[in-house]
């Protein structure tokens, strides 16, 4: 009896109690271990030890609850994300997503307290719990931010099918997980690319350029305004010039036999509406028509010719030299006759060797005016073969217009270059004639638009002539500063414009409001010709108009023009 009060020896867990049929382990509460590395081993041991179906059935019933919202803190989003990416979001498939999430999480043992807590939670509480940020999880070896997990968890609501549908629609837009982890910086870049592209701020770069263009445009327009000739000065000068020309032509018709058929042909910048600053220079061509002549080229460039009269009586036979019409003899007599009829006008300027004109000077309202009276012969036959590749105005003014021009006669003036005693095939250079198309140049510049209404009252205004005026003025100012540029003349500027019009053929390429850009393009063309030392005659491509000045002078002039261009044309100020 005394031994009953002593504690008995401890029994092993497997020993059956004599008074109770229940095993000791069944009396203990069921507390599963948290998932870890030995998760599979512990599960296997518990399955072996547990024999009664009651306990097993209870665990199974607890695992298959479809309405439990998972709050597992390890891999909660993997089944949902993979399921959503693999399948398109349809109402039937979306409702299965919570079940898959629950089954995936149920494989891990949960404590009784956690399970009961989740079961008793309302949908509202479940939503609140899901709003808590979770740690970044790995999906296929790719790090996922807590924000994305938060979005995916809050999108899935078992008790709200409407929200689940919306969540699945948004989830389909997500990118499939890749093997490589995406850094937060790259995620930020991806998000930025999806945003609307904002315009780049170019104010700092563009403003100075725009200001420079505005400044240049203002200078050019102001210069053009200063180059305009006053209307009263123009009319007074034209009245005096017309009176002189009429006096000369009347005298030649009445007092000479060889020049009695003379006709006047106004040419030059004044009659082309290209005169600038003051009406101080005029050109008048007095032409003598010749019939039945042979014109042969003198030299290789196609600009100079010898004229041979065919058989028959002609008032010009007195000027023949070895059956060749001598330009020097004919020009000498012409000069003498002009001097006779202009005694009341100021004395002529000294005659320059090789110059085809007789230059007269006078003064009108304190403006010194010079008049160049140019002798010429008019040839009524087809143009020389050297002109076949010239006057390329087909794309600019049209082929029909070109054919109309080529049906007109051309003119020869008594001009030569170099020494006059140079002989070629028995003909001296001083007896040769240079071909002239000044009448065609005037016609082209008067009707210069690709559209017939260009620069008319009802049409748009272009800046072709304005650009030429500015280039002529620039060249004139540079020649005044440096006398070594004397061999460059306004005809070089005019030829550059004609070539430019054939390359930029549309009137839209010469809009009046784009004066600055158009003028700078013309300067670029002119500089290119100077640097190359080649400027082909517009009508005779084989003639290089820059063959006279040296290559160094051409490049020097190009450099001076480029300096003025880059500095905003200080020479115009």
Explain this structure to me?
With 573 residues, this protein is α+β, with helices and mostly antiparallel strands. It has 20 helices and 14 strands. It has helices at 24-27, 39-49, 53-63, 78-86, 91-94, 97-106, 112-120, 123-130, 146-155, 161-171, 184-194, 203-227, 231-255, 327-341, 399-406, 438-446, 464-481, 490-503, 515-532, 551-566, and strands spanning 138-139, 142-143, 263-267, 281-290, 293-297, 304-309, 320-321, 324-325, 357-364, 367-379, 410-413, 423-424, 427-428, 433-436.
Q: Can I get a quick summary?
A:
With 573 residues, the chain is of the alpha+beta class. It has helices spanning 24-27, 39-49, 53-63, 78-86, 91-94, 97-106, 112-120, 123-130, 146-155, 161-171, 184-194, 203-227, 231-255, 327-341, 399-406, 438-446, 464-481, 490-503, 515-532, 551-566, and strands at residues 138-139, 142-143, 263-267, 281-290, 293-297, 304-309, 320-321, 324-325, 357-364, 367-379, 410-413, 423-424, 427-428, 433-436.
What name is given to the CATH topology of the largest domain? Beta Polymerase, domain 2
Low-confidence stretches: 1-6, 8-40, 47-207
Protein structure class: alpha+beta
State the oligomer: single chain
Hey, roughly how much beta strand do the residues contain? 5-15%
- Shape, per Cα inertia axes: globular
């Amino acid at each position: 009896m005394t031994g009953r009060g002593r504690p008995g020896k401890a029994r092993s867990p497997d020993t059956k109690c004599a008074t109770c049929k229940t095993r000791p382990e069944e009396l203990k509460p069921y507390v599963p271990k948290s998932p870890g590395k030995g998760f599979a081993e512990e599960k296997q041991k518990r399955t072996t030890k547990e024999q009664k179906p009651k306990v097993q059935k209870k665990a199974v019933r607890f695992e298959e609850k479809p309405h439990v919202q998972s709050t597992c803190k390890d891999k909660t989003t993997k089944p949902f994300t993979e399921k959503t990416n693999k399948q398109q979001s349809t109402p039937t498939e979306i409702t299965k997503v919570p079940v898959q999430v629950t089954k995936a999480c149920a494989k891990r043992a949960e404590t009784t307290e956690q399970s009961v807590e989740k079961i008793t939670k309302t949908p509202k509480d479940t939503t609140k719990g899901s709003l808590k940020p979770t740690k970044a999880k790995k999906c296929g070896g790719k790090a996922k931010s807590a924000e994305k997990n938060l979005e995916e968890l809050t999108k899935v609501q078992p008790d709200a099918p409407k929200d689940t549908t919306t969540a699945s629609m948004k989830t389909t837009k997500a990118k499939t997980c890749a093997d490589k982890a995406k850094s937060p910086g790259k995620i930020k870049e991806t998000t930025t690319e999806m945003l609307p592209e904002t315009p780049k701020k170019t104010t700092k770069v563009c403003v100075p350029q725009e200001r420079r263009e505005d400044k240049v445009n203002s200078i050019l327009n102001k210069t053009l305004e200063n180059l305009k000739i006053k209307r009263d000065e123009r009319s007074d000068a034209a009245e005096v010039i017309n009176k002189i020309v009429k006096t000369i032509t009347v005298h030649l018709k009445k007092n000479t036999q060889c020049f009695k058929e003379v006709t006047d042909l106004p040419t030059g910048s004044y009659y082309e509406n290209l005169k600038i600053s003051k009406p101080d220079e005029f050109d008048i061509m007095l032409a003598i028509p010749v019939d039945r002549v042979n014109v042969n080229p003198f030299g290789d460039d196609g600009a100079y010719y010898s004229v041979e009269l065919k058989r028959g009586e002609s008032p010009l036979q007195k000027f023949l030299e070895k059956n060749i019409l001598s330009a020097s003899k004919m020009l000498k007599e012409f000069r003498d006759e002009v001097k006779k009829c202009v005694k009341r006008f100021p004395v002529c300027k000294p005659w320059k060797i090789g110059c085809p004109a007789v230059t007269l000077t006078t003064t009108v309202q304190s403006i010194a005016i010079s008049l160049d009276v140019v002798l010429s012969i008019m040839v009524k036959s087809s143009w020389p073969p050297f002109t076949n590749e010239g006057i390329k105005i087909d794309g600019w003014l049209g082929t029909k217009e070109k054919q109309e021009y080529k049906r007109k006669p051309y003119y020869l003036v008594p001009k030569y270059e170099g020494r006059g005693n140079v002989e070629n095939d028995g003909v001296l250079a001083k007896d040769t004639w240079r071909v002239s198309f000044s009448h065609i140049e005037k016609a082209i510049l008067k009707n210069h638009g690709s559209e017939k209404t260009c620069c008319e009252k009802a049409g748009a205004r272009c800046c072709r002539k304005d650009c030429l005026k500015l280039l002529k003025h620039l060249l004139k100012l540079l020649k005044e500063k440096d006398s070594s540029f004397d061999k460059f003349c306004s005809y070089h500027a005019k030829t550059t414009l004609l070539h430019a019009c054939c390359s930029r053929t549309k009137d839209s390429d010469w809009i009046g409001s784009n004066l600055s850009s158009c003028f700078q393009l013309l300067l670029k063309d002119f500089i290119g010709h100077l640097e190359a030392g080649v400027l082909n005659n517009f009508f005779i491509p084989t003639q290089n108009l820059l063959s006279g000045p040296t290559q160094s002078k051409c490049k020097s002039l190009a450099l001076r023009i480029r300096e003025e261009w880059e500095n905003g044309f200080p020479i115009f100020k």
